[in-house]
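Running low. Invent one:
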Amino acid sequence: MLDVEKIMSEITTICMQAGSKLLLALVIFIAGRIVIDHIMKLVKKIHAIDRADKTVAGFIISGVKIVLNIVLLLSIISVLGVPMASVITILASAGMAIGLSLQGALSNIAGGIMLLIFRPFNVGEYIQANGVEGAVRAISIMYTTLLTNDNKKIMIPNGELMNKSITNFSSEEFRRVDLQFSTGKGEDVVKVQNILLEVMKNHAKVLTDSPAHMPFASIDGGTNESIIFTARAWVKTGDYWTVYYELLQEITMSLGTAGISAPEMKVLVKENQKNAILHYT
């Protein structure tokens, strides 16, 4: 005959044990999260990390946070009474499935590690990659965050980033500003060149400290109606866009003041089978 009272007693004991384990696991989880938050705040204040490169510091902080969360998870599993051997066996059995399902994530992590090792760019630099461009705001294990000129935040997976060409506009100390201008076909070439050179040399942020950095102006082509000139000036990387737009405006105004004509425009008008060419200058 079944001993109902004994069975109920055993069930009650099991439930109480399971309940106490679950309650203890919950307490450990909450306490663990609080401890991890405090540890992360202390890690961020460590002098060596605070003075380290932002890219390296970001990876160190992310790595420490992942390790602490893994320790917390293992502690909770241990409190629940799950044998670690069983956990390892389950993870090993599911390893293939997990690897396939997390293939993209693992690729991003590998890409993040490669970014840390090869350092094609750093936080704060302006880059172009994966069809977008912007200032590097953050580099994490999974994603690189860019901030565009119009204040849009773009997150690029590190795996994709490492498989694409990356243009770093901020890595070098100097950059060259290249501009093109068109004039009328009959204009004095030397006169136009002198105007271009004079404007560039008189600009405070255009470099003239060495022969390699001297401003350059020359004919770069032409059409039946125009002559095309190229103007080149070396500047500090941080001054690039300021100098670009200021030279564009100043040279255009100087050419107009000197009476240099713009290219002639030809408009072909067809009416009653007769062609008339209208000239605009």
Summary: The first strand starts at residue 126 and ends at 129.
